[in-house]
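[User] I have long wanted to understand how a fold can be written as tokens. Those tokens are not coordinates but codes from a learned vocabulary of shapes. Could you go through the record with me and say what the backbone is doing? Thank you; the sequence and its tokens follow:
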Amino acid sequence: MTLEIISAHAVLFKGEAEAVTLPGVLGSFTVLKNHAPIISVLDKGKVAYRTPSGEENNINIKGGIVDVADNVVAVCIY
């Protein structure tokens, strides 16, 4: 699936990911390929993702929103 993590200032990541874990306001959740469509508000915490090569990365966020649809995870952070 495609992961896009953007802020008002820059594109922090755009590429393929196998799994994305997000800090939702109601608790952390993980998105995998073919996840049902969802829009969620994000809380302060870490966006963690794993690339197809197995590399694991984290980005600290203060909050934001995520839109998941058609194997695209679009994360807008602040």
User: Anything to note?
Assistant: The mean pLDDT is 97. The chain has one domain: 2-77. The chain is about 0% helix and 65% strand. The domain at 2-77 is CATH 2.60.15.10 (ATP Synthase; domain 1).
